[in-house]
Amino acid sequence: MKNIRNIALVGAIGAGKTSLVEQMLYNSKTTTRIGKIEEGNTVMDNSPEEIEKKSSVSLGVANFQWKKNKINILDTPGLPDFSSEQISASVAVESLLFVANAASEFDVSLEKSIELLGDLDIAKGLIVNRLDNEGAEFHKTIERIREKSQLNPTPILIPIGSEHRFEAVVDIVKGKAYNNGKEIDIPDNMVDQIEESRIELMEAVAESDDELLEKYFEAGELTKDEMVLGLKNAINNGNLTPAFATSATHDIGVTDLMNTIVDYLPSPADRSEMKVEEGEESKVIKLNEDNDLFAFVFKSLSDPNVGDMYYARVFSGSLVNGDDVFVPEQNSKDRIGSIYSILGKKRVDVDDLKAGDIGGLVKLKVARSLNTLVDTNSKLKFREVNLPSPVFWQTISAVNQHDEDRIGSALAKLLDEDPTLTVEMNSETSENVVSGLGEQQINLLKDRLQNRYNIETELKTPSVPYKETLSGTADVNYRHKKQSGGKGQFGEVYFKVKPKARGEGFEFINSIVGGRIPTKFIPAIEKGLLEVNKDGIISGNPIVDISVEVYDGSFHDVDSSEMAFKIASWNALKKAFKVAKPILLEPVHKVQISIPNEYMGDVMGDISTRRGKIQGMEQNGDKQTLNAEMPLSELMGYYPALKSLTQGRGKFIQEFSHYEKVPNDIAAKVIAEANKED
After folding, report:
1. Rounded to 5 degrees, what angle do the CA atoms 599, 604, 606 make?
2. 3-state class (DSSP) for residue 38
3. Do 590 and 563 sit in the same domain of this protein?
4. Burial annotation 499-537 (CB, 10 A radius, 16+ → b, else e)
5. Are 195 and 188 in contact (CB under 8 A)?
6. Number of domains in the chain
7. What's the CATH code of the domain at 641?
8. pLDDT score at 487
9. pLDDT of residue 405
10. Which of these, 179, 178, 173, lies nearest to 200 by C-alpha position?
11. Residue 124, SS3 per DSSP
């Protein structure tokens, strides 16, 4: 375990994460050429969608050997729409390395990654990449990140030169300059800067440990051994965020970064305990090769051409080919098939995966993404992984009728790859609604259905599940009488109809006395009302929150029947809707919106135009959190609107709150549209 490092690259889109991995694989002689994103031949971005977009859209896994250590490296997309990939990676590693583009302002996608993962209790570091680009500034990038996020990076590898003159790095801990691992002379004009950085680092290390702080105050200095050990402990405990200078495309600082990963970042052995769940209780388990199996499937891939692949991290014990395991989330056993070491889309057979390692599994029948693998006599499971709530919705349907039978199973496999995507049949609108974190994420689902399963689909804005009710009362009757030779039809009902409080549903009251309607026909009356309630009267939406009391009626000894009384009930309720002021209700959601202060006015104005009601606000750092209520019809398109208003920096979460009356002018349009379709 001490000879493994598990690293996830997260952060800004276009900051060069995939290029960094390519250069590391090449420098370690794992590959014989350096793949280029523009040419679509990188190890990590190997799916048709990634090759076409020239950008990562899913988590990639690779490994290489370096200084007698195995480095498992996970490469994640930077686009916030695919933040589930970053979450999946974060649960499998000891270290998160945020990658920043030194030539850009504080990037929105980097900001979102830090917000998403910055509070996790694992080691974090910052790679300032693309330092060879025009306008790139290492220290300015670090200052921006300190100002605008909760990260406080401390330089470990600082650049020699900048922009096109960036040529090497200085390791502040060792006090030496390196060009791709080879020691070079420190430039004379950097001596003062290096000393400033050394003191800054020493103070940060000392402040992370009371004993070291006392030594620092007494001696005014830490020894090199104290610095190295203190730095490793501070990084492992999350008290210090090291920063590294690199240029992946020119291979400057990459070898030195690889050295610092081994030298300073934690191994699985440095995290010897883990909090897990057992039933409703939490407990802490020891992690080592000799203990019971505890592994976690953090990501799955489904491809009909190559089969399903499950990426797993083994925290304790060993996964062995052919072993039976228990999957507590499914309450079922499974069997381990083949085990692989993963390098992009390449697989190498291995006999087992030991504690601390990451690999691929196939032929699992039960386990899915975010599932635990334990010994068959164990009930331990991984803690619940918190996933963002959906903010974007689309209906999905097969274009060709013959694909309707296949789309369900294909969607199930693709949804397992991305647990932030869900598909549910809306029973009220009869639509399959897919919900997720953004438009590009859902469009990727559409592309994968086409590329992998040859299923062409159509995406549309979902219908809003309105409901109908009454705002007034009615006293109505209806006599259904039909005579056309032979047995006729007869049934008459008298109804008192009135509204009920919001959310109380439908109430049927039988007040018939004296046998005015035989008892055997009463259930038919209620059934008729329930059928009308289901389909609605004015807009084709369900009727809710009304009370119908049948208090009188009449019948015919021969011609009365259940059907006659059902028809009478239908028509009586329709009469009631003509006189008792029918209204439409719409779902309203609670919305919590987080935005930088400078966009407050624009966002509040937009909420108002969307019929939203602001309930309150609070300051969080340089951001405001707005609590509001907004109709679902307006929320459907809110995600792209908020992105546009805040230059991508705004975010929101939502949940259903209640139903309330639709304004008359909007209700009239909804009703007219529904009747036009009919």
Report:
1. 100
2. coil
3. no
4. beeeeeebebeeebeeebbeeebbebbbebbeebbeebb
5. no
6. 5
7. 3.30.70.240
8. 76
9. 87
10. 173
11. strand
Burial class (CB in 10 A: 0-12, 13-18, 19+), 33: exposed
| Sign of the alpha-carbon dihedral angle for 161, 166, 168, 171 | positive
Pairs from 199-205 (Cβ < 8 Å, separation ≥ 24):
200/154, 200/155, 201/154, 201/155, 201/156, 201/172, 201/173, 201/227, 201/231, 202/227, 204/154, 204/234, 204/240, 205/230, 205/231, 205/234, 205/240
Residues near 396 by Cβ (< 8 Å), separated by ≥ 6?
A: 407, 411, 423, 432, 433, 434, 445, 446, 457, 458, 459
Q: Which two tokens stand for residue 567?
A: 């028809």
With beta carbons less than 8 A apart as the criterion, state whether 317 and 377 touch: no
Mean pLDDT split into 10-residue runs, the chain, 678 residues: 97 93 97 89 86 88 97 95 94 97 89 92 96 94 92 96 94 94 93 94 93 90 92 95 96 97 96 92 93 96 82 97 95 94 93 96 94 95 92 94 90 92 88 94 94 94 95 96 80 97 95 93 96 93 96 93 95 96 96 94 95 93 92 93 93 94 95 79
What pLDDT, on a 0 to 100 scale, did the predictor assign at position 102?
94
Q: Which of 673, 469, 658 is nearest to 582 (CA)?
A: 469
What one-letter code names the amino acid at 216? Y
| pTM for the model | 0.89
Q: What is the pLDDT, as a whole number, of residue 485?
A: 65
Per the CB < 8 A criterion, the answer to whether 555 and 481 are in contact is no
Q: What is the pLDDT of residue 55?
A: 87
Write out the DSSP string of 490-506: EEEEEEEEEE--TT--E
Q: Strand 422-426: give its sheet, edge to edge.
A: 422-426, 431-436, 392-398, 457-460
- DSSP labels, 4-17: EEEEEEEE-TTSSH
Residue 262 lies in a domain: yes
CATH number at residue 311: 2.40.30.10
Alpha helices for 54-126 (secondary structure H): 83-90, 108-117
The widest CA-to-CA distance across the chain, in whole angstroms, is 113
Question: Can you give the residue range of the structural domain that contains 337?
Answer: 273-381
Alpha helices by DSSP H, 149-283 = 191-207, 210-219, 224-236, 254-264
Side chain identity at residue 443, one-letter code: N
DSSP 645: H
Token representation of residue 616: 């309150």
CATH number at residue 494: 3.30.230.10
For residue 232, what are the CA distances in angstroms to 120, 206, 623? Answer: 18, 12, 33
pLDDT given for residue 677 in this prediction:
57
pLDDT confidence of residue 153:
96
CB atoms within 10 A of CB 107: 22
pLDDT at 558: 87
Residue 307 backbone dihedrals phi, psi, to 5 degrees: 90, 175
Q: Which residue has the tokens 């809707």?
A: 577
Residue 197 counted as domain residue:
no
Long-range contacts formed by 37-42: CB under 8 A, 24+ apart = 42/18, 42/344
CA distance 390 to 388: 7
- State the CB neighbour count (10 A cutoff) for residue 619: 9
Among candidate residues 660, 280, 672, the one with its CA nearest the CA of residue 503 = 660
Kindly report the length of the chain.
678
What is the identity of the amino acid at 512? I
Residue 294 and residue 169 share a domain:
no
| pLDDT value of position 493 | 97
